Hints:
By secondary structure, this protein is an alpha/beta fold. The protein has helices spanning 13-27, 48-57, 72-82, 102-110, 133-149, 167-174, 184-194, 216-233; strands at residues 2-9, 34-41, 63-66, 87-91, 116-120, 127-129, 162-166, 199-203, 205-207. Strand 2 (34-41), helix 2 (48-57) and strand 3 (63-66) form a beta-alpha-beta unit.
Amino acid sequence: MNIELIFPVLNEANSLAKQLAKVREFISKIPEYDFIITVVDNGSTDNTKSIVNKLIQENIVDKYLYLSERGRGRAIKVAINKSNSDIVAYMDIDLSTELIFLRPLIESISKKGNDISIGSRLSKGSKVIGRKKIREITSRSYNILIKFFFPFSRIDDMQCGFKAFSRKKALNLIQNVTNNKWFFDTEIIILARSQNYKIDQIPVKWTDDPNTSVNIVSTALEDIVGLIKLRLKLFKKIV
């Protein structure tokens, strides 16, 4: 079974080689799957391209895609559309979610028959380390909003950037996902729920990246606007 691991990156030249070498070493110990590592360059202006090309020569990375238009959601969509793998998964290059949870994420689909499996920082059994209070408050407040707009979604953590999909199911979903930025994660899961896809939540250990470039205010505003638009779009659906 083929598994494609997608890493959307933007100006991450300083950490790429180290982090992807960790991933390659980890997956080399899971011989029952054929892994493909794909880097989606989301408009980097540093030397990301040259570093990834070197990693391809060293057999650490398998595919490199470049997008001139930025947007994390857009990068993931493009990678999924170009994939031929049985399962597609994506995660952040900072590896905030420990790689030990990759196997249960994949096997939730390959062995348990789920359509989607998502890492959850807020489910029972999960552990979050080093997260600033403002980010914790923002995250929990956002999940309260989701439950208000979509009371039957039954998802604890929409935004964790650690998700896997049956590729065929993902292809059906992304055709209808309109957001190309950070709201992408929420939109694709809500759409999946509205279509009765089987979704599994995997409790994970997650360590905050103090150097994250994500802007809390702009992301929060994007998420609120996205929730309103999506609720109107799915007004007749019980989600």
